[in-house]
Recover the amino acids of this structure.
């Protein structure tokens, strides 16, 4: 009976500024898996990008105590399609393990951006989550905006900058003038609000651009959309299940890293305090974007709702936060789908 269990790799950690967040998400996913049906193969990626098979207790993951010599064996994904699995690099030699699926619970660069997905697809390990192309598209805020626009959804006006020098400075200032203040400066491909500044005055623009360049080689300047941010959890590939729309209530600034993980001065309302008709319109828009950007299995689509009731696209998170108090599971809980059921449905798919 024992070896009938499907072997599912759970990838956690990652060479990304969101390493810590991934540890929390992955722990929640692992502890909600049905271990009667599945065997969790835990693959930890350290902040330097070194991969290990972790054989210890999952309880050591969220506090970042999983990296021990005794419990970690270096591992690589084999590109060999016949194995569709991993190679353990043991001192005694190489050991092969075939996998039935892999669920990357990695946030941000080198994990949510299509790179890891590409490795898994090449190895023909069934990938649980958005594929390589869709992950890469959703990570790139400008490309995602363009495709959302093609789906008939409004997007904020924006400009891209690929370097900052004295020649560029004038151009950057003119972009700022065209967008108006306040505006948002962001690294093109990041997450958890890393490198993002809400710029209130022209004098602060260049410093904000400089700061964003610490996170990516391309920076995007974006018009600020009035109103508030709403999210929509989507589960499925052919048939889609949509969670209740949630709403982020801010009392100041924007939804930055601290607010996202402490909710000190902000509040998340599930369901959002909006009419049923508006919620339905948001859900339909989110599904259109999900399909338009080629998403599968799961993703959280974030939008803005203006005081005039207009819906603007913000971004798609192809691996949203997955702790039991995260937005994605909470939106699905509101429509009667528990955390364990989300995981079960993903693994069944
Ligand atoms: N164009 C915008 N208008 C208004 N608020 C914005 C805009 N862009 C970003 N924000 C604020 O900044 C936060 C982080 O931006 P976002 O693009 O979602 O980056 P991340 O991928 O890091 O989550 C959003 O949750 C929102 O509060
Ligand atoms: Mg966001």
């Amino acid at each position: 009976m024992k070896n009938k269990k499907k072997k599912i790799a759970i990838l956690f950690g990652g060479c990304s500024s969101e390493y810590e967040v991934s540890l929390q998400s992955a722990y929640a996913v692992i502890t909600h898996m049905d271990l009667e049906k599945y065997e969790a193969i835990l693959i930890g990626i350290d902040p330097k990008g070194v991969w290990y098979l972790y054989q210890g207790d999952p309880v050591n993951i969220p506090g970042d105590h999983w990296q021990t010599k005794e419990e970690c064996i270096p591992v690589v994904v084999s590109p060999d399609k016949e194995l569709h699995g991993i190679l353990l690099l043991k001192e005694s030699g190489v050991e092969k393990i075939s996998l039935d699926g892999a669920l990357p619970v990695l946030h941000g660069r080198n994990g949510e951006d299509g790179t890891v997905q590409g490795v898994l697809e090449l190895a023909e390990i069934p990938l649980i989550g958005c594929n390589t192309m869709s992950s890469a598209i959703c990570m790139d805020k400008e490309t995602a905006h363009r495709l959302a626009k093609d789906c008939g959804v409004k997007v904020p006006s924006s400009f891209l900058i690929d370097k900052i020098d004295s020649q560029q400075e004038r151009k950057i200032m003119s972009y700022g003038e065209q967008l108006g203040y306040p505006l948002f400066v962001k690294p093109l491909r990041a997450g958890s609000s890393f490198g993002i500044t809400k710029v209130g005055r022209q004098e602060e623009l260049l410093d904000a651009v400089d700061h964003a360049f610490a996170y990516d080689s391309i920076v995007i300047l974006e018009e600020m959309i009035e109103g508030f941010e709403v999210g929509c959890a989507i589960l499925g590939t052919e048939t889609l299940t949509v969670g209740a729309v949630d709403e982020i209530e801010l009392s100041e600034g924007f939804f930055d890293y601290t607010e996202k993980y402490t909710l000190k001065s902000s509040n998340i309302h599930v369901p959002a305090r909006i009419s049923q008709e508006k919620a339905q319109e948001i859900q339909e828009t989110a599904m259109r974007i999900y399909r338009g950007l080629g998403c599968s299995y799961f993703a959280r689509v974030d939008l803005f709702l203006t005081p005039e009731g207009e819906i603007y696209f913000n971004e798609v998170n192809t691996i949203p936060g997955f702790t039991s108090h995260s937005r994605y599971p909470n939106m699905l809980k509101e429509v009667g789908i528990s955390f364990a059921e989300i995981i079960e449905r993903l693994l069944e798919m």
Observations:
- The two ends are 22 Å apart (CA to CA).
- Residues 156, 184, 186, 190-193, 196, 222-225, 229, 254-255, 302, 314-315 surround adenosine-5'-diphosphate (ligand 1) (CB under 6 Å).
- DSSP finds ten helices and 17 strands in the chain.
